[in-house]
Amino acid sequence: MFLCVALNPALDVTYTVAGVRWHAGNRVTSVAQRAGGKATNVARILHALGHEAVVTGFRAGDTGDLIARDLAAAGVAEAFLPLRGESRRTLAVVDTAAGDATGFWEPGPPVPAERWAAFLGHYRGLLTGASVAVLSGSVPPGLPDDAYGVLVRAARDAAVPVIVDADGPALTGAAAAGPDIVKPNADELRAATGRDDLPAGAADLLAKGAGAVVVSRGAEGILAATPGRTWTARPPARLAGNPTGAGDACVAALAVGVATAADWPDRLRMAVSLSASAVLRPLAGEVDLDAYPGLLDSVVVQEV
Amino acid sequence: MFLCVALNPALDVTYTVAGVRWHAGNRVTSVAQRAGGKATNVARILHALGHEAVVTGFRAGDTGDLIARDLAAAGVAEAFLPLRGESRRTLAVVDTAAGDATGFWEPGPPVPAERWAAFLGHYRGLLTGASVAVLSGSVPPGLPDDAYGVLVRAARDAAVPVIVDADGPALTGAAAAGPDIVKPNADELRAATGRDDLPAGAADLLAKGAGAVVVSRGAEGILAATPGRTWTARPPARLAGNPTGAGDACVAALAVGVATAADWPDRLRMAVSLSASAVLRPLAGEVDLDAYPGLLDSVVVQEV
Questions:
Q1: B66, B86, B104: residue with CB nearest A15
Q2: Which three-class secondary structure state does DSSP give residue A65?
């Protein structure tokens, strides 16, 4: 079982408006909503690949209920702990006339110390049945800066490999706790390490304690660094589509690679082709499984 | 009991953002939500005045559940019929830096003919315990153009006085069915009758069949016309505050005036002062009951 930790899950709401009038009233032509957040997307993709995935973290209030219900409807198991307040919504107002979108992100509910302590016990219990733990997405207010570090150490204590997709202090804190893989994107790596050069930034996180650093670079593919070895993996061509969720597909592929003890070139082939399969789908958390095998054969992996 | 009909109730959501960045992502600093819609606001105000009010209409899905739950928390009784789909949300993005707001209105769920027939039976049952019926707000998709007319005739058949706050074809259709009072605002009256002159527009609706026409004119107060008599009622001074919901307070006061058989000058005094009490409160559906008695004494009513 893949254990996906969504400490701050969201209900993603999408409004479609043809020509938004700012500072005025607008009739919304369509409304879509579903459980979102990075770890939730990873779990959806693992489920689509036929793997058992469980999402844990915190859910709060009516919005938390909707998140849990939407995951159940998608066949994805959840084991959230309840929390006071309301889980956050993210709203994307998609303007079909302007061809762009405006986002509004509600704040997540704060996690009191008592709930964090309860979660750690709950998480340790779930780790006993996990083949890989994935920690992905933002850390809600109220948690210690080192929250991801604490979760990484608990996974290591339970001998469960752990992958972290985070940014800022959560990323550097997690790296120091010795996760198997950290997966920042290029901007996140630069921001967290202060280094423009990606191999240099990756080397910093390896030096901190990460077992491997996988840097997603959008259409250019992936850079992966382990102590002593570095690879690049590139998709065969630039794909048109929705890049949101490509990073989550990358993480899902890495998790499968770790669980199956695939070698690094194979992991990277899967990661790049599954990311590309996500770009081909309009919604984050979905992958085009018809296109996946063909993409898998055409990824170019090089050791550098 | 005051029966308030909300065919298309809403959950009003308010996002506060300090300086919205359009076409980009925005962190929402606070989220508020509550049951909204015009008839719901009227019921809240009647409840605040100590009267028994029941809201009926349709509620759908999770948002409908939230609307019903919020009314219950406010102590307002509801007797909604369930409907497939999702009740609508209205979102106001309040930009505290720009000092304005942008609104997004979700569509309401369509009402199939079978549900409308079921509602008419339900409504007739509720009318047996009602002293006044209030029909207020938008008509959801799927209903006949004359939906308000049908509800007015049912109230008249049950000998229950009925007040209508509507616009467009719903207003003119309702007027023809002979309601005791219609309450458009000045713009709505002009749009529905095509007449710039308010007394002339009011005369049109009286000729169609309305028992009285009360026109709300914002800070200028009210114009009221019955066959043969016309009054104006003005607040003592222009009040600073939130005019949203002032029309609902006007309707609530008219409903009380009808139920207590108050004469027209007294009804208008109550209507203008309760509207002013609503302006003093930040949220639609609330009135400042401390300010109300003083305002009541200072309204100027004149027959014209």
A1: B104
A2: helix
